[in-house]
Design a protein that fits this description.
Length: 355
């Protein structure tokens, strides 16, 4: 799930999308009809390391060819993986933000937005989660940056979310709306770096979704290496999503969000049952958009992307609720992506490149 986050829509209203979630469906012992349910061991929530404030607002460095290297804090705890960067807003900061490709739009803690006196950009609206509701409002970022790399002023979602904005917690989510404006980015888990190919460009064309790969690969990021996987890019006004086809053994292709903000990969409980994914006696406490729920863990067995075998592991299983109406039934999280050493998210070309 996420660096303190989520099942679909969890830890944030701008997560994959803002949705209403039903309670998590227990899928332990999937495929074992009539078997006595095992006693469940619930793993506690985990806390991830954040970028040190000593890095300040100018930790980026220029690379040959016009690329920029941004320090990235990669934290692995109990098999879950989270990445975060320092963001500065105006002259204030740095503030740790989760690097979250699964967040279609970037988000800031409501308390921080108030302390920074960010201008309201519209009325507050209600969002819903597992057995709870909350309020969020759009605010204007004003001038802001990531480790000294200037970002275009934009609208952020300000909300009070579990495990965001507290002591030792991140202050927001840097989402795909920002990352996509660079065309492509390289998340280098092995070297704790976020590589940007050049200056920030305009938003993606919001008139259509597209599936790659199209055009030449971003060789300044891939350096001619890696394996390309087709990705469907869906740009909307203020939001961008990346989706990839995942196939469990003997099953059909399933639509997963490529989600660096999800510290643990997740599958819809209905798919876990349909694929008879092996149950365990383990479950994990995870934060949703406005609550904390217990998520059962299941075994993936053999699973793969198009042309790439994925590492077998435990993943969360829960009811995706309204998210599944759009076809999304899983999150491919950083726990799996880190195993490749580095990944390139190529928004412009509709490709995911795995190291």
């Amino acid at each position: 799930m996420r660096a303190r986050r989520r099942v679909p829509g969890a830890v944030m209203v701008a997560g994959t999308v803002a949705v209403t979630l039903a309670a998590a469906t227990l899928v332990l012992g999937a495929g074992q009809s009539g078997a006595r349910a095992p006693r469940i061991h619930v793993e506690p929530e985990v806390n991830f390391a954040l970028p040190p404030a000593s890095l300040g607002c100018g930790g980026s460095s220029a690379l040959p060819g016009g690329a920029t290297s941004v320090p990235l804090t990669v934290s692995t705890v109990a098999g879950q993986v989270a990445e975060s960067v320092n963001v500065c807003i105006g002259a204030a900061g740095p503030f740790p933000f989760v690097l979250d490709s699964g967040a279609g739009g970037s988000t800031i803690d409501a308390g921080l937005a108030r302390r920074l006196h960010l201008t309201s950009a519209g009325p507050a609206s209600e969002f819903a989660g597992v057995g709870c509701t909350g309020m969020a409002r759009p605010v204007s970022s004003g001038p802001w940056s990531v480790e000294g790399v200037a970002l275009t002023p934009q609208q952020l979602t300000a909300a009070t979310l579990p495990q965001i904005g507290g002591k030792g917690e991140p202050d927001g989510l840097l989402g795909s709306d920002v990352l996509a404006r660079f065309g492509a980015v390289r998340v280098d888990f092995a070297h704790n770096l976020l590589i940007l190919p050049g200056a920030e460009g305009p938003p993606l064309d919001t008139t259509r979704s597209y599936t790659g790969p199209t055009g030449p690969p971003p060789t300044s990021l891939t350096q001619g290496d890696g394996t390309t996987v087709p990705v469907t890019v869906t740009p909307l006004e203020g939001e961008v999503s990346l989706n990839v086809a995942v196939r469990f053994a003997g099953g059909r292709r399933r639509n997963f969000v490529v989600d660096t903000g999800s510290s643990q990969s997740v599958v819809a409980s209905s798919i876990a049952r349909a694929q008879a994914l092996g149950g365990t006696d383990l479950a994990q406490r995870q934060a949703t958009v406005c609550s904390v729920i217990t998520v059962p863990l299941v075994r993936t067995g053999a699973w793969a992307l198009t042309g790439v075998v994925l590492h077998r592991q435990l993943i969360g299983a829960t009811n995706f609720g309204a998210v599944s109406f759009g076809g999304t039934v899983g999150l491919l999280g950083s726990d799996q992506l880190k195993r490749f050493g580095w990944v390139v998210l190529d928004y412009a070309g509709g490709r995911l490149v795995l190291g």
